[in-house]
Design goal:
The complex is a heterodimer.
Chain A (H helix, E strand, L loop, with lengths): L3 E3 L3 E4 L5 E7 L5 E8 L3 E8 L6 E2 L6 E7 L2 E6 L8 E8 L9 E2 L3 E5 L1
Parallel strand pairs in A: 2-11
Antiparallel strand pairs in A: 1-3, 3-8, 4-5, 4-9, 5-6, 7-8, 9-10, 9-11
Chain B lengths: L3 E2 L4 E5 L4 E7 L4 E9 L6 E7 L4 E4 L2 E6 L4 E6 L8 E9 L6 E3 L3 E6 L1
Parallel strand pairs in B: 2-11
Antiparallel strand pairs in B: 1-3, 3-8, 4-5, 4-9, 6-7, 7-8, 9-10, 9-11
Classes of the chains: A mainly beta, B mainly beta.
């Protein structure tokens, strides 16, 4: 059974703190993605990675950075958390090539910044 | 600029009837379309997809229709069941984008018993 896991289901952090969100996939997928989900805005892509140590900005990268040192792990970093980064964060992975663009998602991390 | 739009935030349907969820897109480079379903406190799960070379794809109770000239796709669920109550997202991808998906805002479907 394919699996994407995220390090925490719920996190509460203070403004200005550095926050690490970790994602691990066990499907040997090349591509990994970080999204945030907000009501009325759907899923918006923050960053993605198509290979180890490679990263590309998504639609809303400001205030975030990422790290991919191993194929199975993709980390999202909030350098200095702000209240407008309170959101649901979703990690996903997918295989390169093939006929399908299907992405597999983790359960999400609900981050609250106070 | 929202390239994928779901203009109905919510839809309410009686059990056993048809649910029709709609999605519009603006980017003519999109060539693959997917629907995802999301329950609260869970990640989205893949439901059904369609390539731009087709106009219909069916999987059990779920059918996706694609109208390329109108840049419109729809998801039909027949018959609807209470367990179908969830948020539905449509998504689109370009062939050369490392599988990057652009999602719509989502539609909350409620199926009443």
């Amino acid at each position: 059974d394919v699996k994407v896991t995220q390090s925490s289901r719920y996190l509460v952090k203070r403004t200005g703190e550095k926050v690490f969100l970790e994602c691990v996939q066990d499907m040997d997928h090349e591509n990994m993605f970080w999204y945030r989900q907000d009501p009325g805005l759907g899923l918006r892509l923050i960053y993605f990675s198509y290979d180890v140590k490679m990263k590309e900005k998504g639609d809303i990268p400001e205030g975030y950075s990422v790290s991919r040192e191993k194929k199975e792990r993709f980390s999202l970093i909030l350098e200095s958390a702000s209240t407008n980064q309170t959101s649901m964060y979703l990690c996903a992975s997918s295989r390169t090539g093939g006929a399908s663009y299907e992405q597999y998602f983790g359960p999400g991390t609900r981050l609250t910044v106070t | 600029d929202q390239q994928v739009k779901q203009n109905s935030p919510s839809l309410s349907v009686q059990e056993g009837r048809i649910s029709i969820l709609n999605c519009d897109y603006t980017n003519s480079m999109f060539d693959y379309f997917l629907w995802y379903k999301k329950y609260p406190a869970e990640g989205p799960t893949f439901l059904i997809s369609i390539s731009s070379i087709k106009d219909k794809n069916e999987d059990g109770r779920f059918t996706v229709f694609l109208n390329k000239s109108a840049k419109h796709l729809s998801l039909h669920i027949v018959p609807s069941q209470p367990g179908d109550s969830a948020v539905y997202f449509c998504a689109a991808s370009e062939r050369t984008s490392y599988g990057k998906l652009t999602f719509g805002q989502g539609t909350i479907l409620t199926v009443h018993p």
